[in-house]
Design a protein that fits this description.
The chain is α+β, with helices and mostly antiparallel strands and about 140 residues long. The protein folds into 2 domains: about 30 residues; about 80 residues, Beta Barrel (OB fold (Dihydrolipoamide Acetyltransferase, E2P)), CATH 2.40.50. Helices cover about 20% and strands about 35% of the residues. It contains 2 helices and 6 strands. A 5-stranded mixed beta barrel has the order 2-3-4-6-5. Strand 3 and strand 4 form a beta hairpin. About 5% of the residues have low confidence.
Length: about 140
């Protein structure tokens, strides 16, 4: 009987065994994934003075319209017969009615308008923009 009581005294409780197994499993996973994440040592530089930072890019206004105000570069899609602005925000805005002065590839412009959700753009991934402001930027 001495052997039986000694074996019972050395038994590890089940919850301790489960927690130990979970710890070993987590440690093995962390090591397999490359260890713990290190913090970045490189400082992020603030934007240069005078740099244009878009105030909003398509946002919902109080009247429910999606408004855009940004800088961009004019693009000519001659095969489609379309003109668009590639905004600095990465979106492509088709301008269905455009003065001849703006129909130049690569022209930098500032634009503001409302996205026409009901119109379909001729340009793949383009959005039709009802222009409120369009002017040349240096």
């Amino acid at each position: 009987m001495g052997d039986a009581s000694g074996a019972a005294a050395r038994r590890v409780p089940r919850r301790t065994a489960l927690l130990g197994g979970a710890f070993v499993g987590t440690a093995a996973f962390v090591l397999a994934c490359g260890g713990v994440e290190k913090t970045a040592t490189e400082a992020v530089a603030p934007p240069t003075q005078g740099a244009f930072l878009p105030r909003w890019t398509p946002t919902l206004s109080a009247d429910g319209a999606r408004r855009v105000h940004s800088l961009g570069t004019m693009r000519v899609f001659a095969q489609l017969g379309a003109y668009a602005v590639l905004g600095d925000d990465g979106f492509l805005y088709e301008l269905p009615q455009l003065d001849d002065a703006f129909k130049q590839e690569g022209l930098r412009v500032e634009f503001m308008g409302v996205i026409n959700e009901s119109a379909t753009s001729k340009i793949p991934d383009g959005r039709v923009l009802v222009v409120e402001l369009l002017r040349v930027r240096a």
